[in-house]
């Protein structure tokens, strides 16, 4: 269909005539938020979208995680054995907890497991305070389906990685120079309002999103 | 696309007579409008934001050919395969070829208005390929062999009772339930198996970033992520106008889109895809195809005024605020894109003969323009399209079927009207004569060439003295 390409571009080039440039208004500068403010804002916004946000710290976040897991009856927890959080988990796992299940093969070899396991845990690239969302950049260690296929998604977020806004995250982390295969913003469990605009949670993605925010 | 001329009066009558439809729509449109107002409660902030949105879209369109080439180059560098299609038929053929190359028969689809424009599902279905809609609203209407009635909430014309009956009738072993959560759970269960087994995923594109070769998808349900992550092949389809220059153009437009569409600060998922699965990665499609569809857009682009149509980010808020749409719903318009945006876009794509009447489905109240997040001059374009149906002077940028309604009687009538209004003595004479003879004039007969006009309008009562004369008598200066 290279003919289509040539025809479309020719039509666009042929009819191109100078258009007046219009001045673009700048974004209104927002006062920078403190880390505590960012945590509070993210928590408030994400809870409004039915995510469960637990503030803990880098020392004993696994304790908080285990409490979350013990409250639920889960058939397993999908995790990334080689990620930093994965290493911490496998070091001290208790026998009464749902078994840790590693995502180590490619999807073709473990698809059924991914679609039947109850929960998955991932780290995050950061968060957004202004809208209340997590940033995920899935990696070879922590693949894309980990945060999508299981019914419960548990995400670990370091408080220091929460940005004011998407624009500031893109700018300070230079996203344009290094976009990953897939970058995601996630603001809560999956939802729909397609029937009479009645908001219901847990459609095709996770039914629950639990965020563990780690203060240093 | 549909070749038949849509019978608007008949459709409108039917829609207006459907009490259930009007009830379902009214409630939903009021809610969506209210949610949007709550989010954009500070009008100054909103105005500044949409000025940015407008400027970003105009900047992208100004460089459209260059940005499309850059997008193609970047996506290709990233490992995607880019295809170009001038017509829906070509785009369908491209999709079919990809699907057949993989011997696939099960296609799962995320919501895409462009694929509706192509009638892709029907096309694939005729060739023995199941193309299953996975957005809940789209799934509902596909079960009932309907098309979307709204850009954002496609099944909004149905209420829960109707959906309960539909699920009970069409999904095997499904008990009747009107509980929305239960209906949702039924769909989740059915579609999860489909996500698991889908061989090719098809999606639309909300924004495509030329700078990085990134496809952005906005959604709440997770079905879009499923369709673009679980199957081994992903086909993304977009109109050529959706390209943006820079990654930093995305945040303001994202805010405008989710806020205008449903009053959300952000959707559950914002999915940015820049490449197929890389070596070492464990999931994601091994092939990502991007299909760029023109279908009349490059022609629209050529005209500086009509080009504004292409700024649209498909938020659907003009539908929610339109006094015509909110009483009719989308189906009465007869085409894929309804409401104000449909009324300006469709006649330009389909031609005035088939779809020009859509531009008459407006009260010119301008609500659509007031809420449009990218400031599309919808009423100016509506007026332009109405004029073009009757206009004589055709230019290369004229819309298809320009002047198709031109006829001697109307031309002469309007020429006479123009002469009268431009000639003071003649106008005064006419006013006087009508004032004298007005009460004696018979009712306009509903026959012949005046029937269409007279059957829905009453003849005005002419005053004995015109405003002009009255003003003169009061001593107001005549200028």
From TrEMBL, chain A:
It comes from the Bacteria. Residues 40-214 form the LUD domain. Residues 1-34 are annotated as: Disordered. This is Lactate utilisation protein C (LutC). Pfam families: LUD_dom. Residues 18-27 have a biased composition (Low complexity).
From TrEMBL, chain B:
It comes from the Bacteria. Coiled coil: none annotated. InterPro entries: 4Fe4S_Fe-S-bd (IPR017896), 4Fe4S_Fe_S_CS (IPR017900), FTHF_cligase-like_sf (IPR024185), Helical_ferredxn (IPR009051), LUD_dom (IPR003741), LutB/LldF (IPR004452), LutB_C (IPR024569), NagB/RpiA_transferase-like (IPR037171). Residues 302-331 form the 4Fe-4S ferredoxin-type domain. Gene3D superfamilies: Alpha-helical ferredoxin (1.10.1060.10), NagB/RpiA/CoA transferase-like (3.40.50.10420). GO terms for molecular function: 4 iron, 4 sulfur cluster binding; metal ion binding. One of its GO terms (biological process) is lactate metabolic process. SUPFAM superfamilies: alpha-helical ferredoxin, NagB/RpiA/CoA transferase-like. Keywords: 4Fe-4S, Electron transport, Iron, Iron-sulfur, Metal-binding, Repeat, Transport. This is Lactate utilisation protein B (LutB). It comes from Candidatus Competibacter denitrificans Run_A_D11.
